[in-house]
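Revision sheet: structure tokens.
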Amino acid sequence: MFAKWRSSNGQKYLEIFAPDYYRLGLLLGEYLYDQIISMKRLIQLFSLRYLRHGITYNRLLRISKLYHRYIPKYLQMEMIGISDTIIRINYNDILLQNCFLDILYGYLIPKIKIKPLILNQLEFGCTSFGIFGKKEPLMGQNFDFSVLFRPTASFVHLITPRLSEIFSLRLGSLLSLPIGLNNWGLNLRVSVVKTLMSGNISMPSSILSRLAFENCQDAESYFSLLKKFGGTASYNLLISDQNKIIALEGLSDKIERIDINSRVAKTNTFVSLKFQRFLLDKSYSKFRQYYAEYRLNRLSSQKLGKVQEEDISSIMRDNSIICRKNPFKPMTLAFLTNTYFGLGSPDNERWGIIPFKGGEVEI
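Predicted:
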């Protein structure tokens, strides 16, 4: 049982292991204390801004309880451990944090007209890439969000009680985001999409991604899990393993799947024609989508199809369309590839190396 903040090329990440999920939660609560408190304050701030619409913190807590029965018992124990560590946090706060993105994109945005200024403070804008390289599928993503979320973000290298190994981005007490990879080579990269379609009440995306990273050894097994429990909001998702890349557009429980044989870029809009009428803003992210596709196609042509991970990083550093720096809109504040990670802007910060050895985990 251990937890330690480590550094790779100047990039910090938390490395953690415990033999059971409750004690794992205790360690997470201790070492991610600042991030978890910051996330609670941010949700409270949001609820104050929308008080006149009846969006109180207590109402958000009540909505989050609708998702609770879909969370596996052993992960509930981990969440209990987190809440038991922090005096100013209870279990319901942890539950809300793990459901907040599902509530925001699957419930509030489709149902309530949120002012653009406030939405910019909560919005997540991401650009992700998948391409077949010289040896294996390559994945890259810039994760864009408001500077208000910066204190909540962390990368965590988790060795689970089941001895699977996960490296993923987190916000606050989220058990994971669908932005990360495991020791079997499963990679996930998500981009949320603002639509008029409400999501289902089902397994929260943070829980689903954690469940996948802990148990799924390939892209198809994750896709099966997603079809069973997914659909709490609208999204673009890239899934890869050592042999394939799958691109998904998800609209509640409707899924458009494309098996990629060359390359793909995804942002915060839909490409498929049948989903266009559900977009909250049909023009939003369209230029970034077209530009990301153009950069990826151009790169593939220049490299004659023999793209390497360093080539993907050159696109991720592209100012200011893909590597975004406007502090009044979502900024690029985290990035991840198959091998590298970092908090901050990919063109300014050093790139840390993901601490995976591959194969079985040794404790």
